[in-house]
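writing this on my phone so excuse typos. first protein, seq and then structure
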Amino acid sequence: MREYKFLIPVLRDSDRQPHDRRPLDWLDSLLVAEFGGFTRGDPVQGGWQGSESLILDESIPYWIAAVSEKAVLETIWRCCDRFDQQCIYLRKPDGSVLLVNRLATANLQALEQ
């Protein structure tokens, strides 16, 4: 098994409003079912360049242990939809980073590596 870390933003992309508790409960259940558990940390702050200005965001870090990178990516793709995110930050076990977008062709290339 290898450790993966990803960040779930606290605010939805579409309206910049916070998620209610249901998507987080869904994610907790999914991570237990798919990977046997998870670790969740305190929220962290960061930012990214939007089309017009810097977007400040707060995210909840999650760590999981997984054998299959494909299973991790499929989980993150589902999170993009469920949490209304254009992309989600994923740090792979080798330290490299992916900005996972469910529809991006780069995701398909990552599965082939």
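second protein below, same order as before
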Amino acid sequence: MWERILGGEISLQEVHERFDKFRSDPKTLETEVGVVVACFSDEEDIVTAVRQRIVQIKHYHKLRECEGAATAILEFQKAMDLEGNFELLRDFCSQVHFI
């Protein structure tokens, strides 16, 4: 799994399972990723590699926050029987909703 993390190829579900506990503790997240990069990566610029992975994980956390808003909009659309194209929201929710 660490090879995929270091390569930036980890799935959203794996990010959730491995890193969601760090959502409110970014310093510990940075420390853990930094240790892994230092031990298992052949990256010459470790600081840049750590920052890239941290940014990706934070983007994932932001996506998870947006999922709640998208779900609320879809529920409102259904409750109010609104017409229109809500496919983008449905697609987004289906991609990030795996729990």
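The chain has five helices and no strands. thats all i got for now
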